Amino acid sequence: MDCCAHCIATGLLFSPKVAERDLRRYRRKGPDSTTRLILEELRRQPLEEASLLDIGGGIGVLGLELLAAGVGTVVEVDASPAYLAVAGRQFAEHGWAERTALLAGDFAALAVLPEPADVVTLDRVVCCYPDYEALLARAAGCTRRVLGFSYPRDRWYVRWMMALENLWRRITRNAFRSFVHPPARLAAVIESSALRRVARRGNAIWMVDIYQRRDNDAHAGIPIARRSESQPRR
């Protein structure tokens, strides 16, 4: 499947019904586990008046949480019109509509990219995209300071789980597919854009990596929030 077809399938899968379900769950339980890990790490960074580019931002959870933490502006890109509609409603209800912008489409194929942002995030997005190299290269190129993203652990049980999900989608004629991409290749694409990993978190299924632009190391007035890497048990 090419990326355009996959983008269309993504928009169909994440329907208004799914978007409203995710909103109810967020209001009831707060951010999902991987989102919480990304938030914990990003809150260690200087966020006051920073700009956020949230790729595949869904119902806008990262944008909402980081605006509350001091971020100045948010641009969210998503292939699902239903998700963008819910995100826009959420931002408006919190009085943040003027500080946010919503872009519909496949980020890796946008004719005109958003302006570079201080912080770029991709939460559970890489696993939904076949051409991860194009996606991450563009995301890294839009990062002024920090990039945070989550992706599935490359383990047999995760691959088995996703294979079953994809088999069921094939049986039910659902064109959407999920992927477990090689972590070393994910890192190589990001590091080729002069970013270095400063944190790693994870659980049994998901990994979260935080990268920082190398030329920020000597930038006066911008502290580097670093932590020792925490590798999950194998």
Can you give a write-up of this model?
It is built from eight helices and seven strands; from the N terminus they run αααβαβαββαβααββ. It is α/β, with parallel strands linked by helices. The protein has a single domain (3-216), classed as Rossmann fold, CATH 3.40.50. A seven-stranded mixed sheet has the order 3-2-1-4-5-7-6, sandwiched between helices. Strand 2 (73-78), helix 5 (81-93) and strand 3 form a beta-alpha-beta unit. Helix 6 runs parallel beside helix 8 (183-191). The model is unreliable at 217-234 (pLDDT under 50).
Output the CATH topology.
Answer: Rossmann fold
Please indicate the count of domains.
1
Overall pLDDT: 88
The SSE string, one letter per element, is HHHEHEHEEHEHHEE
For the record, the CATH architecture stands as 3-Layer(aba) Sandwich
Please state the CA-atom Rg, rounded to the nearest Å.
17 Å
Shape: globular
What percentage of residues falls in helices of 4 or more residues?
25-40%
How many strand segments?
Answer: 7
Instruction: Enumerate how many helices there are, as a single number.
Output: 8
Given this structure, which CATH class is correct? Alpha Beta
Strand % is: 15-25%
Structural class: alpha/beta
Low-confidence segments, ≥5 residues, pLDDT <50? 217-234
The side-by-side strand order for the widest beta sheet comes to 3-2-1-4-5-7-6
Distance between the termini: 32 Å
The name of the CATH superfamily reads Vaccinia Virus protein VP39
Pfam families: Methyltransf_25
Organism: Eiseniibacteriota bacterium
Keywords: Methyltransferase, Transferase
Domain Methyltransferase: 53-143
